[in-house]
Amino acid sequence: MAREKLVLLGDEAVALGAIHAGLAAAYSYPGTPASEIMEYLIQASDGGKKLAASWSVNEKVAYEQALGVSFAGRRALVSMKHVGLNVAADPFVNSSLTGANGGLVVVVADDPAMHSSQDEQDSRFYAQFAQIFCFEPSTHQEAYDMTRQAFDLSEAVGLPVMVRLVTRLAHSRSSLEPRPPVAPKPLVYGERSHWTLLPINARRRFRLVLDKQAELRKLSEESSFNELRLSRSGSSLGIIASGIAVNYVLESFEEIDPEPSFLKISTYPLPEKLVRQLVERVETILVVEEGYPFIEKTLRGIVGIPGKRIRGKLSGDLPLSGELTPDSVRQALGLAPWARPEASSRPLAPRPPQLCQGCPHADTFLALKEALKDFAKPVIFSDIGCYTLGYFPPYEAIDTCVCMGASIGMAKGAADVGLHPSVAVIGDSTFGHSGITPLLEAARANSRMTVIILDNGTVAMTGGQFSYASGEPLLRIIEGLGVAKEHLRVIEPLPKNQAKNAALIREEVNYPGLSVIVAVRECVQEARKRKRASE
Amino acid sequence: MKYDLILAGVGGQGILSIAFVIDRTAGLQGLNFKQAEVHGMAQRGGAVESHLRLSDGVIYSNLIPKGRCDLILSVEPLEALRYVDYLDPDGRVVTSSVPYINIPDYPPIEEVLAALKRVKNSLVVDAERLAREAGSSRAQNMVMLGAAAAFLPLDTRHLRTAIEELFSRRGEKLVAVNMRAFELGREAGLKSLASLEA
Question: For B76-108, what is each residue's pLDDT tens digit?
């Protein structure tokens, strides 16, 4: 009898693999394309009865909680989008020195082509930086199987393990065959000399990480997820592909004549032995990988490989930015494009994303623009969230968007050197994530700036997750940071309040010190969901 | 057998619901499938596309190569045009004629429809009219799924089962409306198929 098949997103395949590996706890902060990992885990946790799964205030806190679970000897998953690992980089890098007690798996979903991100960074460099093992699945089955194995491997080598996804796998739906789950492990506390990274301990622990590298390489070389097929026809071409790029190569593989040698790489550190075996047999090596040219650069070094040609992103055979496609890979393989119908050649008007009809942010932006219209050069430092769409017409309201929480720090820096009006615009969840510490500084300095916190009560862009810094707690946080009570103002962003709100904003912008204005109105998508649920 | 579809429309038009129904139907029929979709920022009233690949064999690429798409199923005419480049020379377009205008530079609708006419094998359906007839203008996505159903390698019985599964959480009334929308779309599709074969 065929085993049961499940239809899942790539993200969900990872989550299920973790559950079946005996996961005890999971932490994350919402971010495309990783959010669905935690959504699935929260659903499966049955309100915390089956495992502890919850959204964290940011990725660093998520990582540290996962580290605590690992210290306690139990299995932990921490997931995030690629730029989230920048936020969690401090505990992440140091966790290779503390090592893992209970299996610790960090899943990072990269977003090449920046569908919903501000950069294309490739998390494999982070795995290399921390000197830990990394899996890169190509299919849903592998996403499931590799995540399961990642926990075993983490405990076997005593280090955290990374699973790297990209958008096209994270957000593809397909089927997989699960295997029977294993039971969660009991508590077994970590050894304090491992986990207290005083120099006297850290030096020894770092030496240990270095000593483990040979073992990691051997595990990679022996992993059944890597596959070397040497050409029987003696082709001079060898292809190295990893992750999602494997699928694009295989899509056209049968058409390549003569059949080339092929190495599929799914694990890092690179399986050097397999790479050598391939390179010895061929004259030209084509490297196909999603993200930065990580494998290609390693292969090429500075002087290349004598007598061999290395092709890939650095040689211009594949694009250095954006996503790979079956078409760009086909071209690099030397195959003609498929015949196409005569298409309308006229370029079509693009349809960028935009704020929803009735969105509270729209009303706040309109009031803000009105309030600032008499200033020669007002600057609005913005942040990460739906309100970043305020960049586009008809608002054209914001001047910057860099990373979570940057709005407040940038506004303070600009105010320090005399820029006025210096306005920061940040959402409630982004404020909780990374806005509190810069506001503490601005409050102590009483900087001449205005912070507008858009409190819609949710993490809207990623589908409405829990926001820690919203409502009454948000106001108490702001007061607690030392913002003067008379310059902490609350408005309700509605069209009927626009003149009043604009006047209030203008008044605070003219105050020669720090003001915080909280614009409170529920996200329209969440309001709709709530209404539907109550019907 | 392989069959590649691009589902297109504007964020909020229910493109991923169409994908759910087809995925589920493929599962019921024992077909393999891979379906790539876009979440997050791309959803907020922007262009939404999903690549959906069906096969009785192994499917490798998560994305459809240009020139290999068998059918573009679109709930919006301008969005249908956006992916014509992906069509197989024998591929077809099944789209709604009703524009969703939320951008300042939306071209004149006559031009959009004329461009669609120039695509071989295009079927243009007034999805809004049929959806209203079914009981809700929000059911345009199911009208378009119905219109495409005549061409898909999928069993209509299984499609109906999947539609019922999708909407049953939201009550019997919604199931009935969406099922009617599907049937009205299907009639339009069958009529078009008959005229092509005549």
Answer: 999 999 999 999 999 999 999 999 999 999 999
Whether B41 sits inside 8 A of A175 (CB atoms) is: no
- Rounded to 5°, angle at Cα B6 from B3 and B8: 155
DSSP reduced 3-state for B172: helix
Per the DSSP assignment, residues forming a β-bridge with B35 are A173, B52
CA distance B182 to chain A (A): 23
- The secondary element (H helix, E strand) that includes residue B191 is helix B172-197
Touching A: B residues 107-136, CB under 8 Å = 107, 115, 118-120
Q: Which whole number is the average pLDDT over B12-22? A: 94
DSSP symbols for B117-142:
HTSTTEEEE-HHHHHHHHT-GGGHHH
Beta bridge partners of A516: A451, A488
Average pLDDT, chain A: 96
User: Under an 8 A CB cutoff, do B46 and A351 touch?
Assistant: yes
* Direct distance between the N- and C-terminal alpha carbons of chain B, in angstroms, rounded to an integer: 26
Q: Do A168 and B63 count as a contact with CB atoms less than 8 A apart?
A: yes
CA-CA-CA-CA torsion sign (A339, A343, A349, A355) = negative
Cα four-point dihedral sign B15, B21, B24, B26: negative
pTM, two decimals, is 0.96
- Can you tell me the mean pLDDT for A234-256? 97
CA separation, residue B70 to residues A8, A266, A336 (Å): 24, 32, 19
SS3 B3: strand
Chain A residues whose beta carbon lies within 8 Å of the beta carbon of residue B113: none
Inter-chain touch A32–B11, beta carbons under 8 Å: no
Which residues are bridge partners to A286 per DSSP? A239, A311
Interface A-B, measured as beta-carbon pairs within 8 A, has a size of 149
Instruction: Name the token pair of A495.
Output: 């069209």
Report the C-alpha gap between A13 and B1 in whole angstroms: 26
**Chain B residues near residue A171 by CB distance under 8 angstroms:** 36-39
Could you tell me the pLDDT band of residue A534, with boundaries at 50, 70 and 90? confident
Confidence of residue B43 (pLDDT cuts 50, 70, 90): low
B77 within 8 A of B176, measured Cβ to Cβ: no
Chain B contact for A533 (CB, 8 A cutoff): no
CB contact (8 A) between residue A325 and residue B107: no
Q: How far is B101 from chain A (nearest CA, A)?
A: 10
Q: How confident is the model at residue A2, as a pLDDT?
A: 47
- Residue A113 is given by DSSP the state T
Least confident of A364-378, A520-534, B174-188: A520-534
Region of residue B127 (phi > 0: left; psi between -120 and 50: alpha; otherwise: beta): alpha
Looking at residue B194, its pLDDT comes to 83
Instruction: Give the mean pLDDT of A156-160.
Output: 98
Burial class (CB in 10 A: 0-12, 13-18, 19+), A184: middle
Q: Nearest to residue A481, comparing CAs of A432, A529, A443?
A: A443
Residue B55 burial class via C-beta count within 10 angstroms: exposed 0-12, middle 13-18, buried 19 and up: middle
Sign of the Cα torsion A7, A8, A14, A20 reads: negative
Q: What are the DSSP calls for A282-334, one per residue?
A: -SEEEEE-SSS-HHHHHHHTTT--TT-EEESTTTTSS-SSS---HHHHHHHTT
Residue pair A56/A80 in contact (Cβ under 8 Å)? The answer is no
